[in-house]
Structure of alpha-1,2-Mannosidase:
Amino acid sequence: MFDHAYQNYMDHAYPADELMPLTCRGRVRGLEPSRGDVDDALGKFSLTLIDTLDTLVLLNKTTEFEAAVRRVLSDVRLDNDIVVSVFETNIRVLGGLLGGHSMAVMLKEGGQHMQWYQDELLHMAKDLGLRLLPAFNTSSGLPYPRVNLKYGVRGPETRTGTETDTCTACAGTIILEFAALSRFTGDPVFEAHARRALDFLWEKRQRNSNLVGTTINIHSGEWVRRDSGVGAGIDSYYEYLLKAYILLGDDLFLERFNIHYASIMKYISQPPLLLDVHIHKPLLPARTWMDSLLAFFPGLQVLKGDIRPAIETHEMLYQVTKKHNFLPEAFTTDFRVHWAQHPLRPEFAESTYFLYKATGDPYYLEAGRTILDNLNRFARVPCGFAAMKDVRTGSHEDRMDSFFLAEMFKYLFLLFAEAEDLPFDVEDYIFTTEAHLLPLSLSTAPHSSSIPSNRTSEEELDDSNFDWTCPNTRLLFPDPAYPGNLRDPIRSAVDKSCPRFTREPGMGRPPLRAQDFMANNPEHLELLRRMGVSLIHLKDGRVQLVQHATQAVSAVAAEDGVRFMQEMMELSSQQQKEQLPPRAIQIVSHPFFGRVVLTAGPAQFGTDLSKSSTGLRGFVTVAEPYSGCAEITNAEYVRGHIALLQRGQCMFAEKARHIQKAGAIGGIVIDDNEGSSSDTAPLFQMAGDGRSTDDITMPLLFLFHKEGNILLEALKEYREVEVLLSDKARDRGVTLLPHICLPKCYNSSLCFTYLTHDTAGQ
């Protein structure tokens, strides 16, 4: 397969940057219609050949490698008057030259090949590095996104240098190549600039969520796009923090990676999904689809040593791949196509390789076979391999990107290769984001002490923040069936096989209706399963329903499932239209006196506080059991009070009935999802339990964890805490307070004086 792709490039495209496999010719920038930003990777420097150099060595094509190096040295120019992407040129061309140099040195030291080599590729790499350096001439240290290879970024002849924004990955995916260039040449300037850019991104992270946005202003450091994920625009920033630690041995990179990683797992990872969030409101999803570039993340999790979520996300991606033959450029959370293109991206193959290395599970060899078969069945054309224009129709696009040769065949070859098939030990190298090979020996290479450590006084290394080693997967998964147990539930959610149109005997019961559904009813959950409907629990407490007719036990059950989903969407839409505004819980007792107001969510049942002019006032007490899911055991304390309950274990209406039976005058349910807050998560109405809730005659409100903690801490400190439940906060001045203070006052004038001083904050 590699020979077919590489030889067609050399026969029909070289010295052009890329092969156009449908028309059997080279893509030369300026001669073909512009494709916009995609063309910024093309610099008239024989991109595909440079990007493929170290692949040739890995695949035991030493003779071809030697010929390719000679061609690069004789034919390639790096001083063209052309504007290129700093990011793409760094990872593909600079990385390709450095990977080629690493292989040439390794072969020369072996004594049989490349004996004539005198670091010529390294000299070209340094020349290119110097041509990229003008892009870093900004006050922040973040590079301009584009640079003119001949003229830099300043002056009208450059035709660039006016941009203000760059993506986080574009600025944060420099350190491996620039540090390697510094270590190989002894010139610290490249590593220093890459470190400065990383330092600036770290300083600009959102300090509460510890996440970074997707696009940043290179001059001011303001986030332009504040959505955060692990896919396009950010992906390789995280990858390079961890790999910079592996290559360079600087603990600072590992510490920063682990802080980011903890936030990714807290906010973005919702296994098996990886969903973008807002950096300032990380519990709020930023979109309902995922892009294919995040497929690298399970491989990064393997390097981190976090195998379980890697297995889960990879399985989701594998099932989407089997459903559509390739990963669409973007797909929705219910696994439908969002963007239908597929430019033969290698990230899924990369993660498949890493997971096989981590687990030894032959399942990942089968996943690799699926990738191979689909490439040969659907992408292979007489002149190479063509990108998919639409995975749904199988139509092609006239492009074969250089990364296909640089990455895809490396990872697939390594997946299936035995140790004796490899010409060298890949464990001695780190893969860049373009799969170029940099030797780990660079960590001990002499480098200038003038490169600052960039550690601020507040950044002392905290050993408790990360593990120093990856876990042994044989100890982690002593049961060989364990990975399969993780995959099975995910496989049932995504499937590509045809529906089985058979009628199952005994399916005579009436179908489940959306308005009757209860998420805690085992019988209802079993009915959902039979209809091909699965549940995904999101971290904000919501449940996502996904229906795949092919998973239903029969065609009739599948039809029932479709009807159920339609009813559920209509019901959800109706409830959103009827959604009530948020309610207020105001702490009115000493020493708060109404100044603390907590935002609360309403219930779809019980007293409607918007129809009450006075609201409900009362002292709070914690119900026992705290879940409120059984008969209240401290009814003597709950009676006449507003009961505090914890979310979970049963329906909201069930909690309300238990505390009402115990004599409570109202209830407040506190979220059990630690860290949740109305600042970062959308409020919702507490739903009923599918049957009449007319028997619930008191108000029930919902507080997120952060706001609930404020109330619980007040109760712990002051013992008697009185609150007002209402549709909106009442006046926080004297009108609220006489009721609170009268027991302490013996005449009205004294009480009034006390109150006015207190509300003034004295």
